[in-house]
Amino acid sequence: LVNTHNPIIDAILNQKGYAAREQDIDLHFEINDLSEVAIPSVDLTVVMSNLLDNAIEACVSEQPEDPTVTVSIRVTEDYLLTKVRNPTRKGSGILEKGFPTTKGDRTLHGKGTGIVRSIVKKHGGSIRYNVQDGHFLVEFILDLKEETNHA
Q1: Spatial separation of the C-alpha atoms in residues 3 and 14, rounded to whole Å
Q2: What's the whole-model pTM score?
Q3: What pLDDT was estimated at residue 1?
Q4: How far apart are CA 115 and CA 118, in angstroms?
Q5: Three-state DSSP class for 19?
Q6: What is the pLDDT of residues 117-147, one digit of tens each?
Q7: What was the pLDDT predicted at 33?
Q8: What digits encode the pLDDT tens for the residues 6-43?
Q9: Could you give the C-alpha distances from 34 to 19, 57, 73, 108, 110, in angstroms and in order?
Q10: Angle CA 79–37–32, to nearest 5
Q11: Residues whose CB is less than 8 angstroms from the CB of residue 71 and which lie 6 or more positions away in sequence, other chains included
């Protein structure tokens, strides 16, 4: 489905793409060459898996007319810019921590957005959750110059 030239990101996005397809969800990618992204694979896997799982689950539970998840990952000279967008019927405006879990046992669920936030911050980045025009949008930015200083 996607070839970013980064095997870790490719594996995550393709696996989630096939999972979305099985649920009749269109997963749309807007991605440039990610071969130079040097963020540890464990952190990339946790962040992208959590965000995509949440977006796919929202489409399944809310059953929107247009179940489309858009993933945008762009690398500039200095930054990794990522956006994950999915339809929602909930609220509007900027959210501090994302939506609380809707799953039954809150002791077993609802930790993903906090973990994502801590990984993004660990890599010198920032993250924002926003609901606008019937869509939930997670955006994060990582400073790639910071990553090369830590390597």
Answers
A1: 9
A2: 0.85
A3: 80
A4: 5
A5: helix
A6: 999 999 999 999 998 889 999 999 998 876 5
A7: 92
A8: 999 999 999 999 999 999 999 999 999 998 888 898 99
A9: 22, 26, 8, 33, 29
A10: 75
A11: 13, 27, 28, 29, 30, 31, 52, 82, 83, 84, 85
Count, in order, helices (H) and strands (E) of the chain. 4, 6
Q: What is the pLDDT of residue 112?
A: 81
Angle between helices 41-62 and 112-122 (to 10 degrees): 150
Judge whether 39 and 123 are in contact, CB under 8 Å. Answer: yes
Give the percent of the chain with pLDDT over 90: 60
| 63, amino acid identity | Q
List the structure tokens of 34.
């990610």
Write 56-60 long-range contacts (CB < 8 A, 24+). Answer: 56/16, 56/19, 56/20, 56/23, 56/25, 56/27, 56/86, 58/86, 58/87, 58/88, 58/136, 59/20, 59/23, 59/25, 59/86, 59/87, 60/23, 60/25
| 136's tokens | 């939930």
- Measured at the CA of 111, the angle between CA 62 and CA 19, to 5 degrees, comes to 45
Q: Per residue in 77-109, pLDDT tens?
A: 889 999 999 999 877 666 665 555 455 555 554
Q: Which two tokens stand for residue 8?
A: 């870790």
The residues near 49 (Cβ < 8 Å, ≥ 6 apart) are 12, 16
